[in-house]
């Protein structure tokens, strides 16, 4: 049984968000199918599209199984990057922590989930050129520290990272890392409603941990950005920033696919 959302949208708003998500998903599927020289089957329902996108790109993900130094997991909010990361961790892959200025949640471990620093230190490290890549997300700084990234590469063990794979594609353009290959997977929810339900559970957890209810405008911003990232995923698969898609539905099935890929 799905939990009730800890945020409240009018049904009309939910219907509009669902329609936009499904429209974006269909456009992505058309773009990816065209890139591989296939036509998208007619009369496909929105619930069928995620599996089709996984099937049409799975070969490309698997091609880098032996050459990739690490795996990047990208997704819209509420799709389950953390859960998939836990599966990769159970397969013996360590997590590359990014630097962030946001507050640590009670369930998070500094140095494992993220490297938590304050804003002055973040700006100082930016000024010293300590980051291979950095950006602002929801008003907080996030970065990939060069010393940490180099340490993980030097270990010789395959690891995984979460976040926008565009960051790692930019890093790969730097002369020092041009020969470093990675696998990049964009996670898809089985449906918009499944994603909304997961986001409800996530906001309830954040509210319980932080003691303050998540602002509805922030939830809407996450949904808007999620739709944007979904739309970008089509171009990124075509250009090679992402290798392909994986539907985060049944955990046992997802684990089997990840074992096959990595």
What is the number of independent domains? 2
Mean of all residue-level pLDDT scores: 90
According to CATH, what is the topology of the largest domain?
A: Rossmann fold
Structural class: alpha/beta
How far is the N terminus from the C terminus? 33 Å
CATH top level assignment of the largest domain: Alpha Beta
Count of β-strands: 9
Shape: globular
* H/E element sequence: HHEHEEEHEEHEHEHHEH
CATH architecture of the largest domain: 3-Layer(aba) Sandwich
The fraction of residues assigned to DSSP E strands is: 15-25%
Helix share, percent = 40-55%
Strand order of the largest sheet: 2-7-1-8-9
How is the biggest beta sheet arranged?
A: 5 strands, parallel
Count of individual helical segments: 9
- Oligomeric composition of the shown chains: single chain
Task: Give a summary of the structure in a few sentences.
This protein is an alpha/beta fold and 262 residues long. The chain has nine helices and nine strands.
Q: What are the key terms here?
A:
262 residues, Guanylate Kinase phosphate binding domain, Rossmann fold, 2 domains, alpha/beta, 4-stranded mixed β-sheet, globular, 5-stranded parallel β-sheet
């Amino acid at each position: 049984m799905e939990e009730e959302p800890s945020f409240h949208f009018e049904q009309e708003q939910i219907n509009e968000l669902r329609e936009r998500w499904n429209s974006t998903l269909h456009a992505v599927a058309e773009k990816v199918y065209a890139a591989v020289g296939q036509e998208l089957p007619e009369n496909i329902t929105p619930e069928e599209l995620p599996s089709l996108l996984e099937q049409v790109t799975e070969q490309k993900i698997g091609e880098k199984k032996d050459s990739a130094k690490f795996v990047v997991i990208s997704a819209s909010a509420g799709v389950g990057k953390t859960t998939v990361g836990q599966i990769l961790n159970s397969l013996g892959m360590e997590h590359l922590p990014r630097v962030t200025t946001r507050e640590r949640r009670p369930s998070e471990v500094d140095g494992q989930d993220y490297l938590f620093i304050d804003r002055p230190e973040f700006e100082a490290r930016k000024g010293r050129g300590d980051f291979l890549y950095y950006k602002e997300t929801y008003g907080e700084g996030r970065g990939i520290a060069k010393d940490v990234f180099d340490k993980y590469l030097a270990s010789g063990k395959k690891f995984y990272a979460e976040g926008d794979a565009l960051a790692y594609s930019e890093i790969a353009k730097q002369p020092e890392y041009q020969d470093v290959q990675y696998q990049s997977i964009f996670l898809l929810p089985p449906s918009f409603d499944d994603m909304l339900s997961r986001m409800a559970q996530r906001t309830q957890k954040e509210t319980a941990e932080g003691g303050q209810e998540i602002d509805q405008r922030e939830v809407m911003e996450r949904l808007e950005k999620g739709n944007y990232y979904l739309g970008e995923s089509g171009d990124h698969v075509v250009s090679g920033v992402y290798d392909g898609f994986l539907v985060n539905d049944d955990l046992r099935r997802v684990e089997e696919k990840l074992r096959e890929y990595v």
